[in-house]
Amino acid sequence: MTGMNSEKRTQLLMDLIKGQKIENAEAKKELGVIRREIIDTPIIYVGAGTCGLGAGAGETITAIRQYIENNKIAADVMEVGCIGLCTAEPIVDVQLPGKNRVSFKKVTYDKVNDVLDAAFAKKPETQENLGQLDVEGSEKWDTLPNFNDHPFFARQRRIVLKSCGLINPESIDEYIAFGGYATMLKMITNHSDFEVCDLIEKSGLRGRGGGGFPTGRKWKFAQKEQNDQKYIICNADEGDPGAFMDRAVIEGDPHRLLEGMAIGAYAIGASVGYIYIRAEYPLAIKRLQIAIKQAKEYGLLGENIFGTGFSFELKIKMGAGAFVCGEETALIHSIEGKRGMPRPRPPFPAVSGLFGKPTVINNVETFANVAEILTKGWEWFASVGTATSKGTKVFALSGKIKNTGLVEIPMGTTIRQIIFDIADGIANGKKFKAVQIGGPSGGCVTEQNLDIQIDYETLLTVGAMMGSGGLVVMDEDNCMVDVAKFFMDFIQRESCGKCIPCREGTRRMLEILESITTKPIHNGPNSALERMKGVMQLEKLATVIKETSLCALGQSAPNPVLSTLKWFRNEYEEHIFERNCPTKTCTELRKFKIHADLCTGCTLCARKCPTGAIIGSKKAPHFIIDDKCIGCGSCKESCNFNAIEMI
Predict the structure, then answer these.
(1) pLDDT tens digits, residue range 483-514?
(2) Pairing relation of β-strands 101-104 and 92-95?
(3) Which H helix or E strand runs over 443?
(4) Are strands 623-624 and 614-615 parallel, antiparallel or unpaired?
(5) DSSP secondary structure string, 365-414?
(6) What angle (nearest 5°) sits at the alpha carbon of residue 243, between those of residues 562 and 319?
(7) How far apart are CA 174 and CA 196, in angstroms?
(8) Tell me: the pLDDT tens digits for 55-77?
(9) Residue 68: CA atoms inside 13 Å, Cβ hemisphere, count?
(10) What does pTM read for this prediction?
């Protein structure tokens, strides 16, 4: 539905970018059409980000199209990004002409007919209903709650994620209609490069990639450098286990990233930018390619943008998924075609970065904040958060919680509020044990520190760190020694190998952790003492690695071990002295017993045992040889008489 031809529509969008007030009635109506506030046929929105597709959104879309065809309904189907409530995917919204948009959860292909029947009959009060989303000028549903009042969203303050899951990520027209790119043009026409840097510095925005360095200050370092070429880079590599914030932002609102990068490029004097993104993000890459192409067609990227003399070219560089390339100098080497390995600093990239030229690197979330800050004013952004950490932070919630997904909360929110108010607590009625925050280089926050406020400095006081924003929740069934071993294994495998402390130190730390979580080959009289000595070496090794590693990744590598040692030393001691894993997670420390009075001698368990640890005659009780048992549990799983118990 559109009343304007393409030429007039484009002119309208250009007027919006230039900040002109729209007075014409026809133009106002066209804006309502682009924003989908005025529709003449129903629109069915499907959350088709990676998480939605993983939950079955592809089959849901097929079923929706089949429903429309079978019922001869004139309706549009639109794929949008992730709105954040990943646990409720696939999420389907229905917007009828003149009515608010209604959201439904867990709409798998087999539920499509029932949900759409209810929606088109104007009786959307189903068990799948999540609430209604306000549409400007539309009628509310009397019986439905507001979507934003859902406990998952009520405590959030969405700046970076404000349009994800709501707008069409492949439509630049829609992004512009909601104010997109107007701030960019305003900055490059009405403000000097230094003024833009100054506004960002005053806002208090800090890098959201983990380091937390003041963004405006970093930009000023590069801005004052005199050089014929400068670069700006977006780090979208996102290598932390459990982190998917950057991917979701790009999949759901790619133009927000492009606008922020263009403003940053103008501020530092860069004419070329790179988005370094992992090749494992095909949907995000596709939407970036579409967004860049559209921006070029509208003259928002390229030579002499809007006649201002500012030129900016943007390129996509796909990485191979190396964790170390999250470190900025390693990332630079990768773009240059070299092996991704950190280099000593100084000089810092702002002085000598990509191809030896001044370079600024920020991550997706940092750039996604920029346009909003400059639109609403630095004072607005600085009013949110704590004294030293301004604005909001996006977290990826995963692990043993009821509501997994993406949340954006004001700095200063407590971890307890995130886990128990927003995520609705621990799943399956289990007890909370710890939360790993800051990725593999982060640390654990325990029950006694749940009320700690989230900001850069406060988290450091309990041995954790902000990191990029991964938040993995663990319950009473998690073994913290095994958790430390998992992260150390990841860090050791991902070490670039350039410096000895990281390469060899993490290897030795992993060997020590493996020795206390596996059954010893020779369990002599001093074996417990030797294992305890190994744990004592962990702390010494950690200190050396932290103090002597080349890059920040190596310097923070021991954090998971130090954190779990600090808060869960009793679990380490039980593994060492008792040779027991209290949660029965470490399989080689598990022990099984066959109850002779229940064993029928069927021999099934003996046949299933991979190490021949079970002996006994047919039709006679069997026994387990502990020294041969590897704790795999095959015997217990195969027993039909409940004769085998894990002790």
Answers:
(1) 999 999 998 988 888 888 888 999 999 988 98
(2) antiparallel
(3) strand 443-446
(4) antiparallel
(5) HHHHHHHHHHHH-HHHHHTSB-SSSBSEEEEEEEESBSS-EEEEEETT-B
(6) 105
(7) 26
(8) 999 999 999 999 999 999 999 99
(9) 15
(10) 0.92
